[in-house]
Amino acid sequence: MAISETGGDAGTDIVYRSDCPSRPILDQIADKWSMMVMAVLDKPTRFNEIKRRLEGVTQRVLTQTLRRLERNGMIVRRVLPTSPVGVEYSLTPLGESLREPFGRLYDWTVNNADEIRARQMDYDQRVQS
Predict the structure, then answer these.
(1) What is residue 98's three-state secondary structure?
(2) Which pTM value belongs to this model?
(3) Gene3D superfamilies in the record, alphabetically (predicted)?
């Protein structure tokens, strides 16, 4: 479903409503930790390895993020028959399908970061004056 700024029929305008079913999903995919977790899952990865790779994430937040991603069908959790028991996470086909659009967003962010920082500094100077 494309988002139109000019409006449209009732079916198109549902994305603007607070009860639109896409809102919780967009909240999940737009969450910084969710996208970062999905970015590090290029292969099946254990919990502690994910935590080590994501500087600044707490164990609690990572656990919540992994549960939400699993609930939404983006990742799968597999218990490993090791001693002690281990757990690894990997992307599902649905989660894998987000790699390309996320990659484009990431590339855009990197390509425009300097300009965005310059505009932020300019704005901050204007507001403080």
Answers:
(1) coil
(2) 0.76
(3) Winged helix-like DNA-binding domain superfamily/Winged helix DNA-binding domain
